[in-house]
Each structure stands twice: as structure tokens, then as C-alpha cells.
Specification:
The complex is a heterodimer of chains A (about 80) and B (about 140). By secondary structure, chain A is an alpha+beta fold. Chain A contains 2 helices and 3 strands, in the order βββαα. In chain B, about 5% of the residues lie in helices and about 30% in strands. Chain B is built from 1 helix and 11 strands. In chain B, the strands form 2 sheets. A 7-stranded mixed beta barrel of chain B has the order 3-4-5-6-7-9-10. In chain B, strands 1-2 form a two-stranded antiparallel ribbon. The chains are: A alpha+beta (about 80), B mainly beta (about 140).
Chain lengths: ~80, ~140
């Protein structure tokens, strides 16, 4: 992984069209700004992961053993 | 309306039972109308697209999973769900049900949040919380 050190207010480029700004550095949070073309998808990792889990849930709903699941949950 | 579902056969859904997702569920943004289905008094619920087709998800009420689930809702969420009182909101947790049921997980970090009164819902990905996305429901329980 490439690692770059930046101070608040500084930025860097990815290709020529995407600029990432470090706007503010707090004690446990960094505020980041992104200038990018509209077609570049930007998503917090938690959202991406949730999307993945939602798809897994749907997959699992297609083949789950519901009778067993209901029994297990009732006896939980 | 009557819908044909994979899990419960033909279901009668009252218009008042339909919940609307203004933004869709992550990964399924095109589908906005769902109903929560419960067969008999089962603890296992379905969040079912009112088309009767997919998407559908196995969901649980939090109290079936763990005690004291009280996620903090950001004010933007309250606004989208058209309430100023978080106690109007009800939560449902999406589950992944593997072949080995004991390995089932639920997503505590991204609950389905519903304002039943207004029939509005959204999936909220909580920020700054210890709640896990893959909470093992049967963790530490003997076989």
C-alpha cells in the first residue's frame, strides 16, 4: 500500500481528475474532501459491506431451512 | 392486495401494511415497497418486496437477538422518516442464514428502521457504534 503523509489543507491526486483533500484532522476523525468526475463511485466502506451482506441475506433466503430455523429460534 | 410469495404462498397484504423505502435497501435501490410478513407467531420474519418476488430478507426483531438494542438515530434519519421522536421507530435486523443455522449472523450496525405510523423505512448504517455487521446470534451457546 502506498502511504502518503498530509497535513490539514493539503491534497493529492489520483490520475489527473481525482483530487483528495485532507480538510481537518481531529483526535479520532479525519475530514476528507473528494473532487472527482461524476462517474466515479464513492462509498463509505460500511455501506459497501452492508450492500454485500444484504445480497448474502437474499441468497441465503433462497435456500434456508426455515423449519429448522424456526425451531432453533423458538428454543433460543 | 394479494401476492404470491416464495416462502408463505399467497399472502393478503393490506395497503396499510406496505412500507415505503425512500432510498431503497442498499444493493436493491430499485425496489421501494415492502411488507413485513410473519407467519403464525413465528420469531422469524420476512421483509418481502410486495411484488412477491425477490428481494426478500429474513429479518428479526432485536429482542429476539439481544437485550437492550438501542441504536442512536441521527437527526437526518428522523427527518427522512418524518418524526421527531425516536421512540416512534421500530427496528428490524437483516439476517444471513447459512446451512449451519448456528452460524447465523445478523447486521446490528445496519438496521432496517421503520416508522410504522407513517409507513416509512430506511436502512441506516450507523456511524461510531460498536454494533457488529456480522453478529453471531448463537455465539458461545452449546450445541
Amino acid at each position: 500500500m502506498l502511504i502518503i503523509s498530509r497535513k490539514s489543507g493539503e491534497s493529492f491526486f489520483i490520475n489527473d481528475s481525482i483530487e483528495i483533500f485532507v480538510l481537518d484532522v481531529g483526535s479520532d476523525r479525519v475530514k476528507i474532501g473528494i473532487e472527482a468526475p461524476k462517474n466515479i463511485k464513492i462509498m463509505r466502506k460500511e455501506l459497501k459491506e452492508t450492500q454485500k451482506i444484504n445480497k448474502e441475506s437474499l441468497e441465503s433466503a433462497n435456500k434456508a431451512d426455515y423449519e429448522n430455523l424456526e425451531n432453533v429460534m423458538r428454543n433460543k | 392486495m394479494r401476492i404470491q410469495t416464495k416462502d408463505y404462498g399467497v399472502c393478503e397484504i393490506d395497503d396499510k401494511e406496505v412500507i415505503h423505502f425512500k432510498q431503497g435497501i442498499l444493493g436493491f435501490e430499485d425496489v421501494r415497497e415492502y411488507a413485513i410478513l410473519r407467519r403464525n407467531d413465528s420469531p422469524v420474519l420476512r421483509l418481502q418486496s410486495i411484488s412477491g418476488e425477490n428481494p426478500r430478507f429474513v429479518v428479526f426483531e432485536p429482542e429476539q437477538i439481544l437485550a437492550g438494542y438501542k441504536p442512536k438515530m441521527p437527526s437526518e434519519v428522523l427527518k427522512i422518516l418524518e418524526t421527531d421522536d425516536a421512540s416512534d421507530l421500530q427496528y428490524f435486523l437483516i439476517a444471513v442464514v447459512p446451512n449451519v443455522i448456528k452460524d447465523m449472523t445478523v447486521n446490528l450496525k445496519s438496521p432496517i428502521v421503520v416508522n410504522l405510523e407513517k409507513r416509512l423505512a430506511m436502512q441506516v448504517v450507523l456511524d461510531g457504534t460498536e454494533y457488529s455487521m456480522r453478529h453471531r446470534v448463537f455465539e458461545g451457546k452449546a450445541e
